[in-house]
Amino acid sequence: MRDTVLITGGTGMVGQDLLPKICSQEIVERVIVLTRGNGVLPAHQKIEAVRGDVRLPDLGLRHDLKQSVVKATTTIIHGAAETSFSSALSAARAVNVGGTENIMRFAADCPRLKAFCHLSTVYVCGKRTGTIREEDLEHNSGFVNAYEQSKYEAEQFVASQAQRLPTTVVRLSTVLGRSLDGAVTKTGAIHYALRFFFHSLAPLVPGKKESPVDLIALDYAVDSIVLAALDQFTAGSTWHVCGSSDAFSLEQLLEETLQLFYKNRPAWRKRAIEKPAIVNLETFYLFVRSVEELGESVLKNSVAVLKSFAPQLAYPKLISDASTQLVLQRSGLARPEIRDYYPKVIRFLLENNWEARPQEQARL
Amino acid sequence: MDFSTATHLMDLGISAIEYVLPSKSLSVRELEDAGLLVSRAEKLQNFGFERCYISDESADELALRAAAALLDNYGIRPESVDLLLYAGAIASSHHVAGGHFLSNFNYPATKLQFELGLTRASVAGISQAGCMGLTYAVKFAGDFVRSNAEAQCVLCVSADVLPRGVQREILYNVISDGACALMVTRNSTQNRILAHRSVTKGYYWDCIARKNEILAAYFPTAKNLIQDLLGGAECPPEDLRMVLPHNVSYRSWEILLDLIGVRKEQLFATNISQKGHVIAADNWINLKDATTANLLNPGDKLLAFNFGFGANWAATLIEH
Measured between CB atoms, which of B216, B224, B255 is closest to A286? Predict the structure, then answer.
């Protein structure tokens, strides 16, 4: 019998590109997408949308529907998450921890389950510095935002279930856009920050010049997830899907971005906008506090975005993907180089006036 | 950044400084009560402001008093002055008020030349440089003396008085009226100007529409400019005896000091709270006060940094 894959988070940035990829797998017969009904799913004969919510017991499914899904499911890819960096911890926990607990209880009822793939973030390492390896999880270094903390707690729960369920964890780095054409299907904090830089509204960035800025291409994330959940599934494994040693340093990223703005918008040069200055955390927060006191809404918005994630750069770390690369290389999946696709993403963002293009969905 | 205005003025210095502030001074609480603030007084106090000065005299009257004091106190013969540069940030500082249209041509600079008896002095005004006016005057004075073998000294004067009843807060800074006069002199042994950098970014010319962008651009531009100045002069930040600020908020200086690697103790911050932001005169009032307070020794390296609408940034390295 071929596989039936249950996916949560199918309408998110990664999910939108993941669905067509999963559908294209010969071994996959059905793709059941749990959706709250707030996103558009691609039309495909393998895809079945079921309305539900990971925050609810039994995912909010009617009993008969639940039984039908439970009976069929062989693989679960759990991607549903509250990904906003500015969410309150309670809100982040409700989706990211509560949702994980619910889907894993659901998974325990699936008699044919072969694989439970939990999508996470490399930033469960929070404020740790130095080299972060796939096998690392527990720490007491603290977190930059509630997203990181809630995903960390979710991973702890996944780990606690590893004896009962065939689990794998895929930790993704910050997804920038597609490597082939630079398309951005959904904008996030990194895209907003670049936009603020372009508009002279990002004066300061916390961190160190040499702080790695780990970014990945969307297609690389998707291909890695497919391998982790299907072809190369190994119970108990953790994957780091990240830029690792290919990451720009913060100083390189800012300079590269400036040069790309010049190249793509020659007239922009005459604005003579400076690169954001790299500062320590104390000074960054003093600036943040000052702007918040000023109450200038435009600058306040910019600072709100920056403070939600950029402090991570003040905790420099190398996300190691050594174990993951062994599997990926064996499977013939090469990591796109940031120097190749970053210019494409910047060009895409400029050409689309900093808007994402959800319609740029991968073809089925 | 192309700092095409970089200069090395090893043979020039500021040999004399005098300033005049109005007799009337109000606390930020009193300003708030009088409806002369945009923000709450408490916010401005958090940013380091306590008082400002408000003049009942016109800008040209303050300028005359400052310049006359300079000539008198330093024993300078009026006819020895080669050039008078008169700086004012706002348009009303560049004409002597009168009801007739032609009063727009009644220039305070030439009035000053007459009143002071500067019979040999050429006269020009510097406007459209915001709070940078007096710093530009110093820079242009240096250029003038260097390019004129006979020239010995240039009198630089700035004066601004905000229109009566106008709010005293600009971009979260508390503004004072006042005037400052200083003499840029060839072969001065005092306050030698070692290096100067300035940059103008016209993108920010519209200070209303680009208010947020100006607030944001201030820091990285200032950082790069100052670091370029100090690097070019081989003067590491720790070698600075003192930073002579323009009297914008102390909060903003805390941020900028960290960006340029200067300790808070190196900042001459006293005047920010008590004198407020005296438009174009701050750096030089602070130099005068630090000197009077015996805080400086010969050979001390001083950094004067300034920003003005336009937008303009400037930094000057001085050897006391």
Answer: B255
